[in-house]
Amino acid sequence: MLIYMLATAMTIVMLIATAFGLHQEAARVRVKANAKRLEGLAGRKADRHF
Questions:
Q1: In Å, what is the CA distance from 34 to each residue of 39, 41, 46?
Q2: What does pTM read for this prediction?
Q3: Residues 1-45 pLDDT 10s
Q4: CA geometry: angle 24, 25, 27, nearest 5 deg
């Protein structure tokens, strides 16, 4: 019975760790995409001469 409880606990911990890792990766990709978008906007403004 103890081995099943340990296996269940490890499974739950691994699922939580996976969800946390996916959340962190998604946040990193979002930041990277926003930086790229802002970099593109800054580049276009620099090319314009009024």
A1: 8, 11, 18
A2: 0.64
A3: 999 999 999 999 999 999 999 999 999 999 999 888 888 777 665
A4: 65
* 48 torsion bin: left (phi>0), alpha (psi -120 to 50), beta (else): beta
SS (H, E, C) the chain: CHHHHHHHHHHHHHHHHHHHHHHHHHHHHHHHHHHHHHHHHHHHHHHCCC
26/18 Cα distance (integer angstroms): 12
Please give the span between the terminal C-alpha atoms of the chain, in angstroms, as a whole number. Answer: 77
Q: Measured on CA atoms in the order 17, 23, 26, 32, is the torsion positive or negative? A: negative
